Amino acid sequence: MKKEWNTVEVLRHVRHDWLNKLQLIKGNIDLNKMDRVKEIIGEIVVEAQHETKLSNLNLPHFTSLLLLHNWEMESFKLEFEVIDDYKRGILDDNELTQWTSTFFTILNESIKSYYDNHLILTIEQQQDGLRFFFDFCGIIENKESLEPFLHNTSFGIDVIQFDMNERELTLEVMIPYK
To answer: Model confidence over 121-141: pLDDT tens digits?
Structure first.
C-alpha cells in the first residue's frame, strides 16, 4: 500500500532534493569544473521541463504516482520524459494510475533489490491517444510474474508489444482517448 503524502512531507522531500542538487553544483564549482556545473544545470532544467509537461497532461493521480515514485523506497529508479504536452483528448486518470501502479508493484517484486535498476518512461501524444514506452534496465529475477500481467487486458489497457530477458524489459502501451 502506498503512503499518503501530506504537504509538509512533500515539501521536505523537495527541499532535500534541491539541497542535494545545489551541493553537487557547489562542489563542482569549488573544483572549478564549470563544464560539469553547466551539465548539471542543464539536467535540472530538462527534468523540470518534463515535470511541467507531465503536469500539463491533466492526469493528477498519474502525475503524483510518477513524481513521488523515487521517494517511496522502490527497487528501481524512475525517469520520465514527456514528448508533447499539448492536450488532444481525455484519458481515464484512475484507470491509467491503477494500471501503472500495479505494473510498478509487480516489477518491483520481480527484480533484484539493491541493484542499479532503472526504468525510463517516455510518454508521447498521438492523434488518437497516449503512447507509453517503458524501458527497464537491471536484473529481472522473476519474469514469470511479469508476463501474466503484461498479457492481462482486464484493466482496459492493452500492451501493444513487449520484449523481456534477464537484464531488460521494453514495452509499449497505447491508451486511446475517451
So the answer is: 999 988 888 899 999 999 999
